[in-house]
Amino acid sequence: MKKLIIINGPNLNLLGRREPSIYGSLTFTEYFESVKAKYPGIVLEYFQSNIEGELIDKLHEVGFSFDGVILNAGAYTHTSIGIGDAIKGIETPVVEVHISNTFGREEFRHQSYLSAHAKGVILGFGMQSYELAIQSFL
């Protein structure tokens, strides 16, 4: 049985309330429960933090024992060399995910310090971006 984890970064705890025109009105907890029900044949865990070091610690924790990481590092995508180095340093493949099309947004969101170390990047498909990442591991 595949063991995957979704790791969300800063401000993604506000999904459902934060900028619904970009991120939708569904909370991540509601979405996560529906995805778990849709994929009963995999072990699916979830972690969210607004703190960069906690995201790095979680990558280190799961990076040698899980089958895959689905990572939406939020704004840290564009600023964190440390998270990029953590992805590079672990064995578990990571798929970088974004709800919005970051290339259709502000210029600073066009740069990712994670992509070069990720198995792949999925962006712009709303919450379905996570499910596409899950399917990439199946």
UniProtKB/TrEMBL annotation:
PROSITE patterns: DEHYDROQUINASE_II. Substrate binds at residues 72, 78, 85, 99-100, 109. CDD domains: DHQase_II. One of its GO terms (molecular function) is 3-dehydroquinate dehydratase activity. The keyword Amino-acid biosynthesis applies. Pfam families: DHquinase_II (PF01220). Keywords: Amino-acid biosynthesis, Aromatic amino acid biosynthesis, Lyase. It catalyses: 3-dehydroquinate = 3-dehydroshikimate + H2O. The active site is at residues 23, 98. It is an enzyme of class 4 (lyase). The record marks 18 as: Transition state stabilizer. It comes from the Bacteria. Its EC number is 4.2.1.10. Catalyzes a trans-dehydration via an enolate intermediate. Belongs to the type-II 3-dehydroquinase family. Homododecamer. This is 3-dehydroquinate dehydratase.
